[in-house]
TrEMBL record:
E.C. code: 1.6.5.5
Organism: Nocardia otitidiscaviarum
Enzymatic class: oxidoreductase
SMART domains: PKS_ER
The keyword Oxidoreductase is annotated on this UniProt entry: yes
Entry-linked Gene3D superfamilies: Medium-chain alcohol dehydrogenases, catalytic domain (3.90.180.10), NAD(P)-binding Rossmann-like Domain (3.40.50.720)
Domain Enoyl reductase (ER): 11-321
Record keywords: Oxidoreductase
Protein name: Quinone oxidoreductase 1
Gene Ontology MF annotations: quinone reductase (NADPH) activity
Transmembrane spans: none
Stored Pfam families: ADH_N, ADH_zinc_N
Length: 324
């Protein structure tokens, strides 16, 4: 089968499309004919050996797929021919065939294409975890998201109101990205230049209840300043590259919180949690309350470019690699 493979840790440019043997089935594994694979920022870090979890070399790029079940264990909740989305753990996604643990395979609603489905799990379940578990989103609260035109950002815009937010403010760097944010459901959009003053004006000086930040970098302190009394700043990642620090006296000023939100760690340490998430998210996708992503598509031959788009921060929305 054809697959996108990393054999040397030199960044996305080192990804090669090669022929390798199909993966061997294992007990409790579902064999899936892959139609599309999602791309996420950890894929960038893995190509340089910088992610906290490191697959054995060489490895197949990517951790989330959409496709059709070829074979499933007896008694599984999926069967051959089912359209599914799945998490493949450390790599093993951007290949024509993949095997995923049965408890990480989920049936895909009929109204969502396989290409869109490949962009659902990683980002949408991350955002669901952030807002529900770590952010304790209450009905009517205001959510602000940085990097709002990226994968996590657009997922937040698509999902926040369905999960109870009353207002969703997008922070973006360009007018082009502002259009992407509006198309994905932002109620308000501000540019990064002067964003804090703009948010204060939008909220009448009150501030926001939740900031979801996958960017980090030099805007972190202003994110704390943007919070209303009792607000929560959710730390999701550091696509800007710089890991910021917190002067904790700032947390006392308005009883605010800085909260780590590592969905992958939580899912691994809480068996059954992924199924709980899907039980809430899947009906919202099926009935249209959460719109599916409209991903930017790359063919398998351009897998390196797809991952590099996240590395260079030129991607808007979810990036997906198609295999069929």
């Amino acid at each position: 089968m054809r697959a996108a493979v990393v054999s040397k840790l030199e960044g996305p440019e080192a990804i090669e499309v090669v022929d390798i043997p199909e993966p061997a089935p294992y007990p409790g594994g579902v064999v899936i004919d892959v139609h599309a694979a999602g791309v996420a920022f950890p894929d960038v870090l893995m190509t340089r050996g910088l992610y906290q979890m490191k697959p054995a070399m060489p490895y197949v790029v990517g951790c989330e797929i959409a496709g059709v079940v070829r074979a499933a264990p007896e008694g599984a909740h999926v069967a051959p021919g089912d359209r599914v989305v799945a998490l493949t753990l450390l790599g093993n996604a951007m290949a024509e065939v993949a095997v995923a643990p049965v408890d990480m395979v989920f049936t895909l609603p009929d109204n969502i294409s396989l290409q869109s489905g490949a962009g659902v799990l990683f980002n949408d379940l991350t955002v669901h975890f952030c807002l529900r578990n770590r952010g304790r989103l209450a009905a009517g609260e205001t959510v602000l998201v940085h990097g709002a035109a990226g994968g996590i950002g657009t997922s937040t815009l698509r999902m926040a109101q369905a999960l109870g937010a009353g207002r969703v403010i997008a922070v973006v760097s360009t007018e082009e990205k502002a259009e992407v944010a509006r198309a994905n459901g932002a109620t308000d959009v501000v540019l990064t230049d002067g964003w804090l003053a703009a948010v204060k004006e939008l909220t009448g000086g009150r501030g926001v209840d939740i900031v979801l930040d996958p960017v980090g970098g030099d805007r972190f302190t202003d994110s704390i300043r943007s919070l209303a009394s009792g607000g929560r700043l959710l730390v999701v990642g550091f696509t800007a590259g710089e890991i910021p620090t917190v002067k904790v006296n700032r947390l006392l000023l308005k009883n605010v919180e800085v909260v780590g939100a590592a969905w992958g760690e939580w899912a691994m340490s809480h068996p059954g949690y992924l199924q709980e998430q899907w039980a809430e998210v899947e009906p919202l996708l099926a009935n249209g309350k959460i719109l599916p992503p409209e991903p930017v598509l790359y063919t398998l031959d351009h897998a390196a470019e797809a991952v590099a788009a996240l590395d260079k921060r030129t991607a808007t929305g979810k990036v997906v690699v198609t295999l069929r």
